[in-house]
């Protein structure tokens, strides 16, 4: 299942974070990072998925 989350995180980072933690603070941080730059959103999403 982590592989699916990581693939989602590469194409749409907030979706990968949502699948991992739901509507939490990490989700909103990831949306902000994705809006500020696509790469920071990907890095944050993969870090959240790999951390848990």
Shape: globular
Number of helices: 4
Mean pLDDT: 92
Helical/strand content category: mainly alpha
Share of residues in strands: under 5%
Helix coverage percent: over 70%
- Give the number of DSSP strands: 0
> Mind summarizing the main beta sheet?
none
Elements, N to C (H/E): HHHH
First-residue to last-residue Cα separation:
12 Å
Quaternary form: single chain
Question: Which stretches of 5+ consecutive residues score pLDDT under 50?
Answer: none
Structure commentary:
The protein is mainly α and 52 residues long. The chain has helices at 2-11, 13-21, 25-36, 38-51. α1 packs antiparallel against α2 (13-21), α2 runs antiparallel to α3 (25-36) and α3 packs antiparallel against α4 (38-51). The radius of gyration is 9 Å and the shape is globular. The chain starts with a helix and ends with a helix. The mean pLDDT is 92. It holds the Pfam family Pmp3. The chain crosses the membrane at residues 7-25, 31-50. This is YqaE/Pmp3 family membrane protein. It is found in: Membrane. InterPro entries: PMP3 (IPR000612).
């Amino acid at each position: 299942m982590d592989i699916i989350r990581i693939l989602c995180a590469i194409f749409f980072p907030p979706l990968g974070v949502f699948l991992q933690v739901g509507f939490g603070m990490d989700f909103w941080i990831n949306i902000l990072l994705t809006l500020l730059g696509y790469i920071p959103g990907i890095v944050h999403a993969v870090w959240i998925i790999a951390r848990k």
